[in-house]
Design a protein that fits this description.
The structure is a single chain. The protein is an alpha/beta fold. It has helices spanning 8-18, 72-84, 102-108, 128-141, 160-165, 170-179, 194-206, 228-231, 233-238, 262-271, 284-296, 302-316, 323-326, 332-335, and strands at residues 20-21, 27-28, 46-48, 55-57, 59-61, 89-90, 118-123, 147-152, 183-189, 213-217, 242-246, 276-279. The strands form 3 sheets. Strands 5-12-11-10-9-8-7-6 form an 8-stranded parallel beta sheet. It has a two-stranded antiparallel sheet with strand order 1-2. Strands 3-4 form a two-stranded antiparallel ribbon. Helix 2 (72-84) packs across helix 3 (102-108) and helix 4 (128-141) crosses helix 6. The longest helix is centred in the last third of the chain and has 15 residues, at 302-316. The chain is globular and about 50 Å long. Mean pLDDT is 91; it is low at 1-18.
Length: 341
Amino acid sequence: MICENPSRREFLGKVALGMAVSSTGIPTIANSIPPASPAGTGEMPYRTLGRSSETISMLGLAGYHIGVQKTEAESIRIIRTAIDQGINLLDNCSDYNDGQSEIPMGKALKDGYRQKVFLMTKIDGQVKDVATKQIEESLRRLQADTIDLVQFHEVIRIGDPDRIFGPKGAFEAAMAAKKAGKIRYIGFTGHKDPDIHLKMLHSGFAHGFTFDAVQMPLNIMDAHYHSFAKKVVPVLVEHGIGVLGMKPLGGGIILQSQTVTPVECLHYAMNLPTSVVINGCDSLDRLNQGLEAARTFKPLKQQELSALLSKTATAGAQGKYERFKITHDFDGTWQNPQWLG
C-alpha cells in the first residue's frame, strides 16, 4: 500500500514537537519532546522511527564492520552483545564484504534474538529483476522471513532516482516484496550530495510515495560542507520520515583532525533529530565506546553545540574529513557497477 504524504497540519505538529533549529542553523532535538525512553539515565535511550510506531535504539549497529573479524564466532559475539546491551537496530547490506556481513548476522539472530531487533539491509540493484534477486539473497543470508527495512543503497548519482522509479525499476521490486510480506518498510541511503537525496525524495512524492526512512552521513564535519543536516533533515522531519544517521566518526577519519573526541562526535549526531545513529563496531571496545556515548547523552546546550561547531569549522570547510563526499573511495557501486543492474 502506497503511503500518502502527511497533511500540513500533521507536518506542523511534528515540527513543533520533534525539531528545533539552533542559532547555528543546525536542526536539533527539541528538549521538550518526550522520547520513547529518556536520555541521560545511564540506560539505552530509544526513539521512534519517523511516522511509524517502531521504537528503536538511539544507537544502531553498522553492518559493514560485521564480518571483518578473524572468526565468525567473534562477529556473532559482537552482535549478540550489542543486542543484550539494548541495541535493537541492526544495519546491513547485500554487498558488504561480498555478502559475508549478512551471514554471521543471520546466525546471530537465532535462539530468539530475531524477535528482539529491527532488522535492516540494503540493495544496490536499480532495476526490478536485479533488485528482486538481491532481496531474496538477503533474506536467505539473514535467515529471515521478513526484513523490517530495505533501503536502496548508494543513491549517489543524479540519475539514480530516475532508474529506481523508472519502468521496471527497483521501486517495483521493493513494492512487490512489501506486498508479499517480505519487507515492511522502504528507504534509501547515500553519502555523496544532499541535492541527490532531495531529488530522490521528490521522485517518490511525484509517484505518490513517501519513504519510511532515509540514511545519510550526519556528523560534526557535515555541518560545514554540503550539509545533509541542513538541507535534508528538515524535509524528513516535515514528512515524518525516519532520520538514520551514519558515519558519525566518518570511518574514523574525523578523529584525524584532532579537533573532537569519539564521544563528542557521537553526541553531536545524537543531538540531531535522528531516529538512530548507526555506528561501526568492529570490536567489543568500539561497541562499548558507542554504548557509553548513548548512555551518557543529554541534549546539547546551545553553548556546547556552538563550541563543537567552532572548533571544527576550519577542518570541516572543504570536506577533507568526509572523503565519501569528495572521492570515490567509499563508492562500492562505482567500483562495481554490475551491482546496479
